[in-house]
Amino acid sequence: MKEASLTKVFIALLKRDLLLAYRHRAEIFNPMLFFILVITLFPLGTGADTKLLQTMAPGIIWVAALLAAMLSLDTIFRSDFEDGSLELLILNSHPTSILVLAKVLAHWLATGLPLIIISPFLALFLGLDQDVIGLLIVTLLLGTPVLSLVGAVAIALTVGLKRGGILLSLLVLPLYVPVLIFATNAIEMFSSGLPITAQLWILSSFLLLSITLTPWPTAAALKLSLS
Amino acid sequence: MDFLQATNLTCIRDDRTLFSQLSFSLTSGQLLLLEGENGSGKTSLLRILCGIRLPEQGELIWKQVTDNETHQIAVHSNESYAGEMAFLGHLDGNKLDLTVTENLEFSKTLMRGNNCSINQALEKVNLNLFDDLLVSNLSAGQRRRLSLARLILSGASLWILDEPFTALDKKGIEMAEKEINEHLDQGGMVVMTSHHSVSFDNKKITRINLSE
């Protein structure tokens, strides 16, 4: 019989992971709850100074999104590693890097996208202007997939370790910082009426680079973790 | 005809040589039974044969011979080998939060697949009444049967089995042996380890004892 095409396998894996995410709703809600809590607690901690909140809002939302993304990273490969299905994902004739991409995409759809969907409401709550909110969404759409893709490399390296948590944050944070800097800088410049094309191009290039470059090291790291 | 040929395989783990200069070859319709004490390197050898682990030395070659041509690939440098092979390890490899059918549907897409339908495979392993149950509701033996159904559906010619009879009851072992036999009769190959004594035709079996 003919081998299933790569696209078909990609879609099947994407569907499987989304179905699993749906059946594990609690795990998905955890980072989202964290995201909402951090953002709602900030005004309580700093006082209701509208000006102060407005200037800090993009930073608060971005830092919260970044930490929430880090919290959820572990779920990309952990359960597959523990039940042995990771071995099956590697031991087949399809390129592991593409399968990895399907898994990361499913993970982003299940954990990253919900954050982006609720962030306008949280931004309103912090008193951001509407056009700034629009830009915030754009930076989140460009930036959070990078967090998932880059995080996947680190999680693939540490999935075989019993306590990889600290190592994971050490590996991942330095790589997350540029995304955070350019995203919040874009919003800051925009608020003061300056052009932001450069920042958006840089964020887009981060995204393109991580889509094309991270699946290979992730696949290689997974093979290393299994051997 | 398919061939799996190993030449001078050496496996070292944590400075301890598990086995060295191990050579064997296997052809269609044959079963390789790995024996040896705990820790003698059976699982390590299976993982080398899968292509997950690299041997410290030696070479592993997969050959396909048809009437007019020979196709030969080195196992550790070619992804197409993985499509010829199906692996059942210590872990079952089933997702606990998917149903029996969902698990098989996905693995059938992932592997090459053959003409066997999911229902037929489930009938063979006596799981046909459980097809819409979540795997987390199955017993350990039933999960092992599900993994066997995955192998039956895979369409791979080489099965690599690490203790396939664990958690299976007497009837389950008979069933698994029957499926393995059928696979051999269809020109497949099997490499396996087992603590249980197996009842296969002696002509089909090659034994390697790693403790010696």
Would you write up a description of this structure?
The complex is a heterodimer of chains A (227) and B (212). Chain A has 10 helices and no strands. With 227 residues, chain A is mainly α. Chain A has one domain. Chain A is elongated, with a radius of gyration of 19 Å. In chain B, the strands form 2 sheets. Chain B has a 5-stranded parallel sheet with strand order 6-7-8-3-9, sandwiched between helices. In chain B, a hairpin with a 2-residue loop joins strand 1 and strand 2. The radius of gyration of chain B is 17 Å and the shape is globular. The chains are: A mainly alpha (227), B alpha/beta (212).
Relative helix content of chain B: 25-40%
The radius of gyration of chain B is 17 Å
- Multimeric status of the protein: heterodimer
What is the CA–CA distance across the termini of chain B? 31 Å
Poorly predicted regions of chain A:
none
Name the pair of protein chains with the most residues at their interface, and give those residue counts: A-B, 29 and 35 residues
Count of helical segments of chain B? 5
Question: Helix- and strand-based class of chain B?
Answer: alpha/beta
Question: What is the general shape of chain A?
Answer: elongated
